[in-house]
Amino acid sequence: MASTPTSADKVFFAVSMSLDGYIAPAGMDLEHADDPSHNDWGRQWAALQSWLFPQRFFRENLNLGEGGETGPDNDMAQEVFERTGASILGKRMFDGGERFWPEQAPFHTPVFVVTHIERAPWERPGGTTFHFIKDGIECALAQARVAAGGGDIRIGGGANLIQQYLNAGLVDEFTISLAPVVLRAGTRLFDCIEFGRVGLQLVDTVPSPRVTHLRYAVSRP
Amino acid sequence: MASTPTSADKVFFAVSMSLDGYIAPAGMDLEHADDPSHNDWGRQWAALQSWLFPQRFFRENLNLGEGGETGPDNDMAQEVFERTGASILGKRMFDGGERFWPEQAPFHTPVFVVTHIERAPWERPGGTTFHFIKDGIECALAQARVAAGGGDIRIGGGANLIQQYLNAGLVDEFTISLAPVVLRAGTRLFDCIEFGRVGLQLVDTVPSPRVTHLRYAVSRP
Description:
The structure is a homodimer of 221-residue chains. With 221 residues, chain A is α/β, with parallel strands linked by helices. Helix content of chain A is 26%, strand content 29%. The first copy, chain A, has six helices and eleven strands. Chain A has helices at 41-49, 56-61, 72-83, 91-100, 137-147, 159-167; strands at 11-18, 22-25, 84-90, 110-114, 122-123, 129-133, 152-157, 173-179, 186-188, 199-207, 212-219. The first copy, chain A, starts with 10 loop residues before the first strand and ends with a strand.
């Protein structure tokens, strides 16, 4: 059963993962963010996310222009966005995004950044406000629940933050978009999860020609 | 395109894999084969294979008794068996199987064991004959093609042998039965595959309540 049985809102994450378990290629870090040829990370990242980039919803949400694919991949991208009432990010993921998101950051909801630094809320045009939380993951989640207004709470990443929430038993479900690619190195989604710590139930599989979307519910075994 | 365009028979593998990429738990080795409590490998192995064990075809093929599930998982187990005209195994996988297979080994076809030792063919009741090949993976495959009589050739494992065939460009397709379980440690399927060495195309997804069967075609990018 979900870890928050009294609440209708779900805590979830949704990531693209390679067949060998990576959600980010090696070398894709703040230091080399402007150099996608470093360790070939740009090509690997593109392969991992290639199902998402051409989708109509993704393009519209990032103001990349008109048009784009519609179909199961587009539906998935849109559904993840629309169910999300608030997001939670790790500090490094925020630092990367701060450099690369457009002025209208693509969340359009409150976002809670788990960090050790003090910083005033940062409001962006388009409805995204970043709140910086120094008191840990449970505090961030409690605030996100209030801010989500009945919507779901997305753990936006990175992998370390997702692992912290999984190990704390605070994730209700997740979606993996399993890309047909082998990266061999990088950041693994499940690096620090113990066998038996989380029980998983396969809820749903949405295939597309590009990727397989796998939805799992998390239970305490 | 397949790496053997002039041949109708396919070279494939079919394995159960955890969400974090393992096809065997840590501690499941010859030394501890009789001690499934060692590192908890028995429970992890059962979780990985739990889709397969209750299937009618699996039970009949291992003489485990009447009855069993029918449905997509049973169809998958039966299809993998029926398409296979010959199998290729690594030496360690054979050593483990030699101890635990019933007298009627479950292949019922020729099996080629890639090894460094010399050994005469070993014929078992029920149609399985093990041939021991000292001249490497390509030689084993050439002999398996002849013996398969037009059927497909299954690379039965372990992971190291599968990786050798993948890196040599000799695999046409594979099926991963992705189990909803996180093992954290053990033998990874894709440990030694370079990004870009193999191009993968998602061919088919067969969901079941227990597992997701994912079929990929391999190409040379």
